[in-house]
Design a protein that fits this description.
181 residues; alpha+beta; 4 strands
């Protein structure tokens, strides 16, 4: 069964509820009728981040998605941007899950790719588009605007300069029709 926008919204909402009530911890996120994938959210404070960082990974070995939020405890939690980011990353990682089920997710290579190559892999283009599409649905922005905001908020985390992510975004949008399943 595919994770839909309503499933993603439900999961993100549960993540925001947990963030609102807890300073740190781990929670299992579930949504009605979807029990084939284990989704965990870990939350931890750190004064080493400016406001917050969110990352996620899909693990094929145990059919799970792990989400991590690290936030600065000296700043008020920006639940708007955290919700935006949770929706994006959940849609992105759920896309990888669907790719896996359909036999389209390649095995991870042994070496790390530079960001410019990483984001231009077929499966990553499709997942990026899925994440940006999800946030464009909730914000009313274009998918291109969602991509611009995403890269703007995540540039340092991914080690990219503005001119690099602009080139990557242009390439992703020029290729998206040929890769999206």
């Amino acid at each position: 069964m595919r994770y839909t926008s309503s499933h993603i919204a439900q999961l993100a909402g549960k993540g925001i509820e947990f963030l609102s009530a807890h300073k740190k911890g781990i929670v299992y996120l579930e949504c009605d009728g979807m029990y084939d994938l284990e989704i965990t959210l870990s939350v931890a404070p750190s004064k080493k981040v400016e406001d917050f960082l969110i990352d996620g990974n899909f693990y094929r070995s145990d059919l799970s998605i792990e989400l991590v939020i690290i936030y600065n405890p000296d700043k008020e939690k920006d639940l708007h941007w955290m919700n935006w980011s949770l929706n994006e990353i959940l849609a992105h990682e759920a896309c990888h899950y669907h790719q896996y089920l359909e036999g389209r997710l390649p095995r991870n290579g042994k070496k790390e790719l530079p960001a410019q190559k990483y984001f231009l892999q077929k499966h990553e283009i499709e997942a990026q588009i899925a994440g940006w599409q999800r946030v464009s649905e909730i914000t009313g922005d274009t998918i291109e605007k969602s991509a611009e905001i995403w890269f703007g908020r995540n540039t340092q985390f991914h080690g990219l300069e503005k001119n690099e992510w602009e080139k990557i975004t242009q390439k992703i949008f020029s290729l998206r029709g040929s890769f999206v399943h």
